[in-house]
Each structure stands twice: as C-alpha cells, then as structure tokens.
Amino acid sequence: MMQTLKENMLIALEVRSPRFDERSNQPRLGYIPKLKFPKFDGSNLRQWIKKCCKYFVFCKIPDKQKVDLASLNMVDKAENWVSSYLINRTAVDWNDFVIDVNSRFKDESGINVVEEFNKLQQTNSLEDYIDEFEKVKSSMLQNSYVLPEKHLMESFVGGLKPGIRPFVRAF
C-alpha cells in the first residue's frame, strides 16, 4: 500500500515538473543533467560545435530548440552577432545556423595544422611529445584530414629525437 502510494506520488511529481508540458505531458527540453552548456565567444568554433552536438544528444534536446539554446550561450562578439542574426529569422534550422556561424567566425586553426603536423619534433620529454602529437593529430582529424594509420605512425616516429627512434622502430 505504502509502496503504491509512493510510486503514484513520484509519478505525479514527475508529470507536474517544469520539464513537462502540462497539456501534452511531453518533455519540454528533454533530460537536463547538471551539465553546463558550452559558452561561445567567437573562438574555437569547431570545438564549440562539437560540444554542442554532444550536449544535444546527451540531453535529448529537440531540433526546434537547438539554436535558441546555443544562442543563449553566446557571449562577447558572438552574442552581438547572434542578436542581429536572429532579428529577422524565425525557426532557424541547426545545420543552417552552423553554416552561418562558420561563415562569420571562420576557424582559422585548420589552415596551419598541416604545417604544424609536418614539422612536429620532440624537443622535451617523450610524454610532452606524445601529448603534442595527439593534440595536432586531433586537430588534423577535426579538419577532415584523413591520414592512414601507417602515415601517422611514421610521422610520430620521424619526429622523435634521433637517439630514441631506433628503439621505437624495433617494436
């Protein structure tokens, strides 16, 4: 009896929570965990978009609310841009929004990433080199540069200090 009463109360509380529309009993924003939406100030565009997409999936954000949620989390020059961008637009599609944001805040980091990757050399510890290699490799992949695993391995070994290379090649 008590268990049934408790279950009914929990269901009633869940239905009446601000996350649910009282008329349709449908979620308003999906599941909202204690996870902060990423802020965007006009820099690191690719990383921001990637984090937004992960947030949308994790929190089950409906397509119709993605642009609104993203625009609420834009600051500084990005906030100024999005304010004027949304004035004459209604129901902006997320994919169209991403294209327009990309047009305004071009991510210049991809331009030099190939050169940086090709010139990468170990100058400090092996651990520092591995960290830097992983960072540059990630940037390459984010910029849609697809390289065979063999090329990545050869580039990694080629950037090692000459005294370490033979030992790594032995494996």
Describe this entry's structure for a reader.
The chain is mainly α and 171 residues long. It folds into two domains: 45-105, no CATH class; 108-170, no CATH class. It is 61% helix and 0% strand. It is built from nine helices and no strands. Helix 6 (109-119) runs antiparallel to helix 7 (126-142). The longest helix is centred in the last third of the chain and has 17 residues, at 126-142. It is elongated, with a radius of gyration of 24 Å.
Please render the helix and strand layout as text.
Blueprint: H1 2-15, H2 45-59, H3 63-72, H4 76-87, H5 94-104, H6 109-119, H7 126-142, H8 149-158, H9 165-169
Helix pairs in contact: 6-7
How does the overall form come out from the CA principal axes?
A: elongated
Low-confidence sequence ranges = 13-17
Total discrete domains = 2
Oligomer: single chain
Question: Strand share of the residues?
Answer: under 5%
Average pLDDT, rounded to a whole number, is 80
Name the structural class.
mainly alpha
Cα distance spanning the termini: 67 Å
Number of helices: 9
Element-by-element helix/strand order: HHHHHHHHH
Radius of gyration: 24 Å
Number of extended strands: 0
Largest sheet: none
Helix percent reads 55-70%
Protein traits:
61% helix, mainly alpha
Question: How is this structure best summarized?
Answer:
This protein is mainly alpha-helical.
